[in-house]
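User: What would this chain look like folded?
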Amino acid sequence: MPHNLPASPHLETERPSPLIRRFAAQIVSASNEKPTLDIACGSGRNAIFLASAGCDVISVDRDLTELRYRYNSFAAGQQITDHLRLYEMDLLKDPWPFESNSAGAIINVHFLLPALLSSFEDTLIPGGYLVIESIPAHGGNYLKLPRAGQLQSELRKSFDFELYKERKAGPGNYDAVAVQTVARRR
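Assistant: Here's the prediction, encoded as structure tokens.
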């Protein structure tokens, strides 16, 4: 599985999440030839990594400008574009467009919107992976993070956890956590 990404002025921020790298083989093999959705994909660092591993990826974000630029630079000579589709939508406002059981995996890194969890559940095939990594706890970010145990509680009815980590965030009296989870749909 290739781990090298094309040269870029933002290479450090374009490396795939360590969580995605760690579970890439499981994500690809469990997808059962269904696409992986990269929700709030940003520059596409995780999508490009999974596409380079042969996974079909639909990259979803409200602004795909940077990913389009990178995508066009691949078109000249790399196979990645065969495995990568771009889908522009505003996750806060637009209705969820994906059908039930239409995705083999969903990855959601650094943009957590708990209101989407039920859509994720419905869209994933049984055995499909859900990978969530909240924004890290820096400065005032804790205000956008879930409460301790919130994600685990919301997901446990339909998912088995292969990894679930919470790290306390914010002032001592504030109940917020940064979360990393890898879960498989029952």
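The first helix runs from residue 11 to 14. If you want, I can go into more detail on any region.
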